[in-house]
Amino acid sequence: MSIELRIPDRDTPGASTARPGTAELIQEARRQVEICNACRYCEGFCTVFPAINRQKAFADGDITQLANLCHNCRGCYYSCQYTAPHEFALNLPAALNEVRQDSWERLVWPQPLARAFHEHGVRIAGMLVIGLALLFWAVSALRPDEGAGFYAYLAHNAMVAIFAPAFLLPLVGIAIGLRRYWRETGAARFRLRHLWGAIGQASYMRNLNGGQGQGCNFEQGDRYSDRRRWFHQATMYGFLLAFASTSSATILHYVFNQPAPYGFFSLPKLLGVPGGILLVIGTLGLAHLKAKADPALGARRVWGGEMAFILLLCFVSATGLALYAATGTALVPSLLAIHLGAVLAFFLLMPFSKMVHGFFRLTALIAEEQRRNP
Question: Which tens digits make up the pLDDT trace of 329-344?
Fold first, then answer.
């Protein structure tokens, strides 16, 4: 008996909202992986299938590793002869997506919070409202007597007091989750070359290229497209540029005693403005493709949470650009509170939203590099 992974629409009368447990999800994914291992038609598609072909038996940790290697490009589904109505009823993208989603929710600390936001876009919106309210209060109540630029409305020390713990504590939760993942999957100690190999794969996003260079099938069914990879790259590189912008500003402030504000040709602005633009383009593109894609080939129950997180990241980058454009105007205090409130919500949600997939995906790629080239 196979376990039904397709979650009923919540609006369907009498539909159950219960989902299978971890053991059931892994067992169903194992059943499908073993059929794929016998067939091997898709062995050149992406990193997942060579990893499957190296083994004959799959422990629970092996299935968790395969699930986090999967990029949900869906090419294997449209090439498979054993999908429904065949009695095997394979839907490997959905089976691995359910296990992958479950692994984030199980392993990230603290677990109750890890399970709270993935499914519920409304809760993510609620966290944004809380972040906005807190920053509007801070800009109003903690306004300094003097300061330049943004520091005229919220002092540097106040920003550090708010955002340092909001950034560092979520990273602790993610680090605990990654340590648990490494143990669960039985990964061995890796070397620097394994890390560089994984970073190379992540930077190019080869697995979103279908493994054969023709693109993936995420939003167009059996037609290939590279758009999802392009939008992912725009989002990833935009985020890295924005992070580099903040880091360079921190170095200028503390090492070279050059506090903000910075001119357009300064390093923080030369990195941050293109980063923000790429983030807006990438997140809007990903939201558009997600709206077109078949939800039955993913973890349907988290569709709303994933879409809400994409839109939150878009909102963070768009308000950052608007804040920069409004420099020197009366709009700055309000836009500063809106932007920083969105950033605060984003930081706090990092371990409990789709953002965590980047950390787990890179870890899975490192483990795969170690297994391929011990």
Answer: 999 999 999 999 999 9
Phi, psi dihedral angles at 46 (to 5 degrees): -160, -175
Answer whether 341's CB lies under 8 Å from 139's CB.
Answer: no
**What are the sequence ranges of the domains in the chain?**
114-158+213-355
To the question of pTM greater than 0.85 for the whole model, the response is: yes
Q: Do 66 and 121 meet the contact criterion of CB atoms below 8 Å apart?
A: no
DSSP letters spanning 158-221:
HHHHHHHHHHHHHHHHHHHHHHHHHHHTT-----HHHHHHHHHHHHHTGGGGTTTTS-B-TTTT
Q: How many CB atoms lie within 10 A of CB 265?
A: 7
* pLDDT band per the 50, 70, 90 thresholds, residue 260: confident
Q: Long-range contacts: 126-129, Cβ < 8 Å, 24+?
A: 127/345, 127/348, 127/349, 128/312, 128/315, 128/341, 128/342, 128/345
The angle subtended at Cα 355 by Cα 353 and Cα 74, nearest 5°, is: 95
